[in-house]
Write a structure and sequence with these properties.
The chain is mostly beta strands. It has helices at about 30-40, 165-170; strands spanning about 1-5, 10-15, 20, 25, 45-55, 55-65, 70-75, 80-85, 95-100, 110, 115-120, 125-130, 140-145. Homodimer. It comes from Vreelandella nigrificans. This is dTDP-4-dehydrorhamnose 3,5-epimerase.
């Protein structure tokens, strides 16, 4: 596995070594000892799997009282995945990083606790899987506005059309009004 720290160094892009031939492929997707060395000592307690169609944007979400770290990957299709630093004490507070994750590149992204996270589907469909360091707590989830002008995230919108959002995401908070971590 290759580990690459991004413009926000706590967010890490992971690229597995893929062994393939005419029968298919094999890859290791997680090894705790290496993850701990490159990303920190975290334990995962919940795995999730979602399916979405082209043009759907999920996020930007985070839990405030029970922050979650997320190790995310796409097993079908392609998404633009985004992490926003919500930690006031961080030198990258209020900054974001985004990467394309796909079934072709097989890359994974480590989004530590203290970040808002979201993704936008660029392929016809996408299946998105992720491991979490804390349990989902629906009453604790906060949604940031996907198009917040302070963040100015450069989403690769299909045909420059607005994304399809859940009602929760349509009512997302502005960055300046959202609770932040210390």
């Amino acid at each position: 596995m290759q580990y690459e720290k991004l413009a926000i160094p706590d967010v890490v892009l992971m690229t597995p070594q893929v062994f393939g031939d005419e029968r298919g492929f094999f890859m290791e997707t997680f090894r705790h000892s290496e993850f701990e060395e490159h990303c920190g000592d975290y334990a995962f307690v919940q795995d999730n799997h979602s399916k979405s169609a082209r043009g759907i944007l999920r996020g930007l979400h985070y839990q405030y009282q029970q922050p979650q770290g997320k190790l995310v990957r796409v097993t079908r299709g392609e998404v633009f995945d985004v992490a926003v630093d919500m930690r006031k004490s961080s030198p990258t507070f209020g900054q974001w990083v985004g990467v394309m994750l796909s079934e072709q590149n097989k890359q994974m992204l480590w989004v530590p606790p203290g970040f808002a996270h979201g993704f936008y589907v660029t392929s016809e469909e996408a299946e998105f899987q992720y491991k979490c360091t804390d349990y989902y707590a629906p009453g604790d989830e906060i949604a940031l506005r996907w198009n917040d002008p302070t963040l100015n995230i450069q989403w690769p919108l299909v045909s420059n059309q607005p994304p399809q959002l859940s009602s929760k995401d349509q009512q997302g908070l502005s960055f300046i009004d959202a609770p932040c971590f210390r």
